[in-house]
C-alpha cells in the first residue's frame, strides 16, 4: 500500500481567467489536492495502488458495490489491517480521507490515503490529515 517511484512536477494552477496572479493559498491547495488525487504518480504506480485497493477489499470486505468496486469500511479496515490494528486513532485516520464523510473509503479516497501516508507524501498533506484526525467534531479546531 505505498506510492513508489519519482514525483512528477505539478504545473502551476491557472484558474483565474481575469487575473494574472493566482493566490498563493489557492496554489498550495491545488498542489495538495493534486497529490491527494494521485497526480504525482506514474501510470504503473497508480495501477499498483488500485491493485492494493482490490486486495484490501478482498481481505477486509467491501461495503456496497457498483462500477467503483465498492467502498472499504474505515472501522473494519482499522481493526483488521496489520499496520493499524491496536492504534486507537486508526479509524479516524482512515476516515479523514473519506470525501463523503460516511466512514467508508472509495478507490479515490484510497489513492489519497496511500499517497499522503507514504514516505513520499508531502508534509503539508500529512499535517492536514493530522489536523482532521484530531478535529473530531469538524469545527475547525483540535478537540
Helix content: 40-55%
Order of helices and strands: HHEHHEHH
Distance between the termini: 30 Å
Give the radius of gyration: 16 Å
Number of helices in the DSSP assignment:
6
Give a written overview of the molecule:
By secondary structure, this protein is mainly alpha-helical. 47% of the residues lie in helices and 3% in strands. The chain has helices at residues 24-36, 43-60, 74-80, 90-95, 107-117, 123-134, and strands at residues 72-73, 104-105. A two-stranded antiparallel ribbon has the order 1-2. The two termini are 30 Å apart. Mean pLDDT is 81; it is low at 1-8.
Short description:
Helix content is 47%, strand content 3%. It has a two-stranded antiparallel ribbon. The radius of gyration is 16 Å and the shape is globular.
Which features does this protein show?
143 residues, mainly alpha, two-stranded antiparallel sheet, 6 helices, 2 strands, 47% helix, 3% strand, disordered N terminus
Q: In terms of topology, how is this protein built?
A:
Elements: H1 24-36, H2 43-60, E1 72-73, H3 74-80, H4 90-95, E2 104-105, H5 107-117, H6 123-134
Antiparallel strand pairs: 1-2
Amino acid at each position: 500500500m505505498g506510492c513508489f517511484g519519482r514525483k512528477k512536477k505539478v504545473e502551476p494552477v491557472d484558474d483565474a481567467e481575469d487575473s494574472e496572479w493566482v493566490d498563493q493559498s489557492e496554489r498550495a491547495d491545488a498542489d495538495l489536492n493534486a497529490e491527494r488525487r494521485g497526480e504525482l504518480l506514474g501510470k504503473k504506480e497508480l495501477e499498483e495502488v488500485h491493485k492494493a485497493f482490490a486486495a484490501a477489499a478482498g481481505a477486509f470486505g467491501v461495503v456496497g458495490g457498483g462500477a467503483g468496486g465498492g467502498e472499504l469500511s474505515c472501522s473494519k479496515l482499522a481493526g483488521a489491517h496489520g499496520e493499524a490494528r491496536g492504534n486507537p486513532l486508526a479509524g479516524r485516520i482512515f476516515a479523514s480521507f473519506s470525501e463523503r464523510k460516511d466512514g467508508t473509503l472509495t478507490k479515490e479516497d484510497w489513492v489519497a490515503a496511500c499517497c499522503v501516508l507514504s514516505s513520499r507524501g508531502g508534509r503539508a498533506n500529512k499535517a492536514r490529515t493530522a489536523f482532521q484526525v484530531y478535529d473530531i467534531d469538524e469545527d475547525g479546531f483540535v478537540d
